[in-house]
Amino acid sequence: MSAEERRFRSALAKLISERGLLRGTLVHRERKCGRPNCKCTRGKKHKGIYLVVSEDGRRRQLHIPKSWEETVEEWVADYQGVRELLEKISRLHWDKVVYRRS
């Protein structure tokens, strides 16, 4: 195993073991609540963050409470980091097959 592959695998193990992993995309939205005297009727809309995930060809959305935003953002970022590291390791193994190296 090359030093580069060891580095990727070490980073991958660290990501997997430290925090949670969550597949999805975070979407920031602004909306009106519908109450007639609310500030949102005068232009200052309510801000919210949603987790969007595709499952079985269907899109699911989940509102993320303010108290969970930071944690969910970390989990989604870590999931993306894992995907990137797996892709790098896969490319290294692709090259091994192409150049017939073990």
Structure description:
This protein is an alpha+beta fold. It has one domain (3-96). Helix content is 45%, strand content 24%. It has helices at residues 3-18, 69-98, and strands at 25-31, 46-55, 58-64. Strands 1-2-3 form a three-stranded antiparallel sheet, covered by helices on one side. Strand 2 (46-55) and strand 3 (58-64) form a beta hairpin. Helix 1 (3-18) packs antiparallel against helix 2. The radius of gyration is 20 Å and the shape is elongated. The model has no long low-confidence stretch (mean pLDDT 92).
Note the run of SSEs as H and E.
Answer: HEEEH
Instruction: Report how far apart the termini are.
Output: 9 Å
Provide the β-strand percentage band.
15-25%
Structural class: alpha+beta
- Spans of 5+ residues with little confidence (pLDDT < 50)? none
The geometry reads as elongated
Fraction of residues in H or I helices: 40-55%
Number of strands: 3
* Mean pLDDT score: 92
Widest β-sheet, arrangement of strands? 1-2-3
Provide the domain count.
1
The total count of helices amounts to 2
**Rg, alpha carbons:** 20 Å
Characterize the biggest β-sheet.
3 strands, antiparallel
